[in-house]
Amino acid sequence: MKKSVVLTAAAGESVTVVAKSGYTYGLAVEASDVVINGINLQGYVYGLQVGSSTAAQKNVVISNLTVTSPTSGWTEGIIAYSDTTKKGFATSEGLLIKNVQVLSTTMGISCNAGPCHDWKLENVKVVGRGGSGLGADAIAVEDGDNRLFLKVDVSKAAADGIDTKATRVVVWDCTVHDLARNGIKLWHGGDIVNTLVHHTGADAAIVTEQGPKTRLLHTTVVYHNKGGGSGYSMTFGYDSQAAQTVEIIDSIIGNTNGGLYFNTKSAIQIRGSVFFAIDNGQVLEQGSTGVSLSDGANKIVSLGMGNANLFVDPKLTATYHLGASSPAIDKGQTLVTNYPAVDCQAQPRVKGQAPDPGPFEDY
User: Measuring CA to CA, which residue among 319, 308, 273, 311 is closest to residue 291?
Assistant: First the structure.
């Protein structure tokens, strides 16, 4: 529990610690003001444990390392186990995970009980082992506040990609793909910006429940359960029926089994977005209100839900960029405030007469 500890490899180098028989934990950190840098952990059932059950753990940095799990059995990469819900302090408060990979894992990065506050994940990659199974998420947060996912890539989880019950959540410049279940599940809403979500499975690619507000900005959602029977690619308050505000701006949704579900208490704005190739033909559903691909963008306008939307094939490339002849080029809308200056590749957001929908600004 000694504070202010730095455990690091030499500059420009790394150290790999390989599990021996009988050792299940690679490293457990309960103290505050700790830096773990360049120390790879290989073969541990539980790679790196953070958090404390006796006092709030504050200001921990995990950087420039890889956690590689065994290839069989239940495993967890970076975990906060302690439950301090009734103790009046956070299990973890102030955690930076930067330039980190978690590979071959059942559960990637998690706050299993919490609460866990003020977490930032930057340039993080989590790769699961595939298959299917509830609870086997790439990233899971049961309780907490203030969460930033920046340039995070998650894939091959047997359950969800990013599943968080935290409040004040931002998912920015991320890629979420090839998952058995949901792509991004924000129980209390949040912002999803410059993000690509593709090849997700059961339920929906994007899920929110309590709100109060969710925004998709320059986000592409494609190949959710394509050919898997009628369903929804996104749901907003499906189970909770909680009132929330939803904005979908300059985004692309298509090649999915179904469209968007909003409960009847939701306030909806959809602007500068593209819809195409939805298996059941239904773009959105809200109570008795429905908009189909054949209704066109005018139906959304007439319902007061937004404008400047396209019902057209955007001609995406194999890497989900707009093709050179895409009718969606320059069809986004620039926001007056809170608008990203660059796309997900750090290119200027507006190159032409107007922004391109989706995370990439190609033209």
Answer: 311
DSSP per residue over 282-314, as a string?
EEEEETTEEEETTT-HHHHHHTTS-SS-EES--
- Phi and psi (nearest 5°) for 138? -70, -45
Tell me how far apart the alpha carbons of residues 206 and 15 are, in angstroms, rounded to a whole number.
38
Calpha distance 14→101 (Å, rounded):
13
- pLDDT for 236-286, tens place per residue? 999 999 999 999 999 999 999 999 999 999 999 999 999 999 999 999 999
Query: What is the DSSP secondary-structure string of 172-215?
Result: ES-EEES-SS-SEEETT-EEEES-EEEEE-SS-SEEESS-SEEE
3 state DSSP class of 357: coil
Quick: pLDDT tens for 173-230: 999 999 999 999 999 999 999 999 999 998 999 999 999 999 999 999 999 999 999 9
Which residues, in sequence order, are CB contacts of 104 under 8 Å at separation 6+? Answer: 68, 69, 70, 71, 75, 127, 128, 129
Q: How many CA atoms lie within 13 A of 181 on its CB side?
A: 21
